[in-house]
Amino acid sequence: xxxxxxxxxxxxxxxxxxxxxxxxxxxxxxxxFSILLISTLIHLVFDAAxxxxxxxxxxxxxxLNDILHRFFIGTMVLCVYLFYQYIAILAQEETGKQRRMxxxxxIYLAIAELGVLLLPVHYAVxxxxxxxxGIHVSVCYISVAFYLFLCAGILIRNWKQLExxxxxxxxxALAVEFLVSMLQAGHPTWLISxxxxxxxxxxxxxxxxxxxxxxxxxxxxxxxxxxxxxxVNPHFLYNTLDTIRIQAQLNGDxxxxxxxxxxxxxxxxxxxxxxxMVALDDELELLEAYMDLMCYRxxxxxxxxxxxxxxxxxxxxxxxxxxxxxNSFLHGLKNKGYxxxxxxxxxxxxxxxxxMEIQVSDTGGGFAEGAKEKIDDLLLHYAKQAPKLEGSSIxxxxxxxxxxxxxxxDCGLWYTENPGGGVxxxxxxxxxxxxKK
Length: 437
Fold this sequence. Notes:
Blueprint: H1 2-21, H2 28-54, H3 62-95, H4 102-118, E1 122-126, E2 129-133, H5 135-157, H6 164-186, H7 193-209, H8 211-231, H9 234-250, H10 253-270, E3 277-279, H11 280-297, E4 301-307, E5 315-317, H12 321-331, E6 340-348, E7 355-362, H13 371-380, H14 394-407, E8 412-417, E9 423-430
Parallel strand pairs: 4-6
Antiparallel strand pairs: 1-2, 3-5, 6-7, 7-9, 8-9
Helix pairs in contact: 1-2, 1-7, 2-3, 2-7, 3-4, 3-5, 3-7, 4-5, 5-6, 6-7, 8-14, 9-10, 10-11
């Protein structure tokens, strides 16, 4: 039987090698999976060791056997708890609903681990093989049942809102663990509990965490960004060139030269696609070139900046501010005859100093009736939206997808309405400098 545990260790070690050698993601969900992967691998080591010692009770010291079995049961309880955490976080990211049972799950984990440490260990000796049984092992079965129940509750409550691939992966993993647990309970000498945890881990890895899936997401986002940059609103280009033409007729060459320089700056900066992340200062340089052109085209618009100078080196996804500011023009200030103010600020978040909040606020006409609800739904369920190559929401949808992908699920874009009129776009990002995670 120990040969099966050894085989599972090699399989999961290979998966861990591939997973950790690939380009990493920094969200809470992926960090949880990383911990789960390591914990399951450690559990399999104790599983293999305890399978050997329980079948050599006459030669292995009782104390060593007890210690190995306590670690075996303790790491199993931790693993099923981490499975619950992974599924709960996944459901929260997908639906936006808060996790309900986290406190109960943590309290039970503490109680179960205390039981693993203190309860007596008993061994059954049979002609088919030996195994541990009694109240100590009951902690294992009760823990699996408890956390499977919590996971099933999450799946049932969020069934309609979860993406098909995700709910199928969760359902398959839970079914496998339930089946293996039933077989283990009915045939204690089989000692196959490690197989259930390994298969659950593989189910999540193959369907949700595979580096190939991540690379496909990166490719999709880069293609969307390239398309967006290649399209940079042709009307903006044509109208700006027309403004330059008229200005050339009316004024001297200096104004024309200035406008051409800013236009060249904008397109020079906007086609920097060799890096996914750039310094905030670089992103603001692009934005300022765009705003200079728009403010010249629409003299009734003013632009103000309030940027924390200490955030200039913070890394942000490339080309995320211009689409947001463009929305302020096209869907806010347009309704007021392109008169008003756009204010861009970047400050550390009050609640978390490791995060910064960028705000783009306008004094425009605000949302049309029902528009905010549609935008909120689009940004909340961004993962279910197919890549857009046209339409008014292409910019903010691509911004949301790229921020979530590169900065983590706790970051992102949302909108609020200003008390005095107009709209504010809020963008929460990590304060991360180049070369640092």
